[in-house]
């Protein structure tokens, strides 16, 4: 219930006195109000800005942070106020919600920041007032779309293939993303080339060539070099058919693939050829055959796989379907109106072109789109007046839906550009994240190296002190993890070395060890291992090999390695133990 | 011949155009057709109603509330109605929020009339606080008086059966239809009969203020229940 309702409740209860004389039964006892009704002013300090409000105001919404006892967690006894380390600008809106019962969304704030604040204060966003709800919803949807795009871009097909994918999956990937493998790229360019060749052949076919010997008439090249063109056509169609069949084979969902626009275009591009093969050389049917040849021009749409811009255009037109529909509808209405008017205006003229209303359609269309061929011209004055009105209104009607389409196209185009930019930025971002992670690991390794596990020697005291308390605690945490798993952290270099020289593992009880895991870890890093080697007297075996052996023993016989190692070189053992004990 | 043809045709066209435009203008003048949809602007009432209540001391003297109580009451009132008055629609809305299951608008209408003692169509803070003062801090006599005033819809000093039926129907309306036992058509009428049997001593078909007060004071249940709402504020 809204805040206001709580204010009016005492009034409603008082008005119940009006029912008393009419009551059929005895009235129940009223609830006893134990708590003190004294209202007090609360101080709320949000990042230094002090807000004051009545306690009752905050109590209006008992299921939020400020209205419930949860705010006691933030009470500061020294200053007798509730302290929140949050954004004071946003808090203003939150507090206004308590005061007025309406939550407003500040337009200049980031939607995510706002949502986070609401979540912190325990307020459900659904109660945003009507005045701001639309804006809030729009921004939220925009943000979610952007996030979805980001995750899509992350999972984009640029990611490496899962290791065990069938040849069919690989083939599909090659088709969808040509730049993943060289073969796919080659195939991509070859098909592109053949599409171009096919389209050009179609065009050149109709150009008049020099006539055959002994004939005066100009022949179109298609009829002169029939065989050549036929061979070229066959080659192109073979390639297209092959491509289509391969795609069909590789598609994860064949039904869906067959229904997609691109596959329909593919089919339409190659069908005329096969139908032409099958059909007999009959004069009657050749008319229909000629029509079919027209469909060969659809091959040019196959280019849309190769061009991003074409796809965007197609997508724009699809998304502006309603605006285009409106444009078409209004144009049709206007055409019919003006055609009728022109027809009746010109009816009286002798030998007029406006023979019927459908005949006037042509004039109207040509005039409204400001083409003005001049093959149909009004002669009467009324016709001329209405003709001019027609051309003026044509300009207006067509100009109206165009900006909507343009803005849609611009939005989609920018989205696309943003996706590309995202991908580029993604690489940089991932590189940065990896660097940061490596930095932390390196810091930890350095810490260990610098004897972080020992007592603070005077040598190392300085460089250790420079690390913050946070770092110390973090390193301690990592160290605990090492102890838990009985493994140690290492850096990439040594790890790769270890992997390569795995085969060299031999079991000697005389492993350099230090037998504790510390030894293993330190010996993993050659630099540190050397240091240990310097410190320890009896290391004979080379560090890296020893480390591998250690690793082997660790991995294979965790338990047995233990006592085995503890047998060795007691001095080393005691030394390392001492180190450990000093640290702990 | 050509020139005459042009003349006649031109004149014809011109004539048609003039006639069409003139008729459109005439219709627009007559208000039968309108070219623009600007009727919305006319409906925008600039409500500049601002009401400031009497001074705190005066209200303190006129009502039985303490200063602090009046302060709390006014703060709440002003928060909800910044303009200082409540009009009937707002009042109905507010009251209906307490009875979501039924339709409280009729009863709210009667209540509004009971609170709006000067009958100016809106309840100011004074009306509000005076009414509350009677209901919560008044004597039994005053409360009964107020109730009688509520039931007497046309404020003529008599409660007729029709008025009572309206009131009782409005109360039952607030219950809504999901009740147990199910509300029957004749329940309000029966209720009115019971009331009149109890209250109308001289069987003249109306209940006067004296009959009402007399009867209520003799009814123990009513007297006891009058104390119920003392501690609301």
UniProtKB/TrEMBL annotation, chain A:
The chain crosses the membrane at residues 183-204, 224-245, 257-279, 324-345, 357-373, 385-406. GO terms for biological process: action potential; protein homooligomerization. It is found in: Membrane. Gene3D superfamilies: 1.10.287.70, Potassium Channel Kv1.1, Chain A, Voltage-gated potassium channels. Chain C. Residues 40-139 form the BTB domain. It comes from the Eukaryota. GO terms for cellular component: dendritic spine; neuronal cell body; postsynaptic membrane; voltage-gated potassium channel complex. Component of heteromultimeric potassium channels. Identified in potassium channel complexes containing KCND1, KCND2, KCND3, KCNIP1, KCNIP2, KCNIP3, KCNIP4, DPP6 and DPP10. Belongs to the potassium channel family. D (Shal) (TC 1.A.1.2) subfamily. Kv4.1/KCND1 sub-subfamily. This is A-type voltage-gated potassium channel KCND1. It comes from Sinocyclocheilus rhinocerous.
From TrEMBL, chain B:
InterPro entries: EF-hand-dom_pair, EF_Hand_1_Ca_BS, EF_hand_dom, Recoverin. Its main location: membrane. It comes from Sinocyclocheilus rhinocerous. GO terms for biological process: regulation of potassium ion transmembrane transport. GO terms for cellular component: peroxisome; voltage-gated potassium channel complex. This is Kv channel-interacting protein 4. The keyword Lipid biosynthesis does not apply. GO terms for molecular function: calcium ion binding; potassium channel activity; potassium channel regulator activity. Keywords: Calcium, Cell membrane, Cytoplasm, Ion channel, Ion transport, Membrane, Metal-binding, Peroxisome, Phosphoprotein, Potassium, Potassium channel, Potassium transport, Repeat, Transmembrane, Transmembrane helix, Transport, Voltage-gated channel. Belongs to the recoverin family. The chain crosses the membrane at residues 14-35. PANTHER family: CALCIUM BINDING PROTEINS, KV CHANNEL-INTERACTING PROTEIN 4. The keyword Ion transport applies.
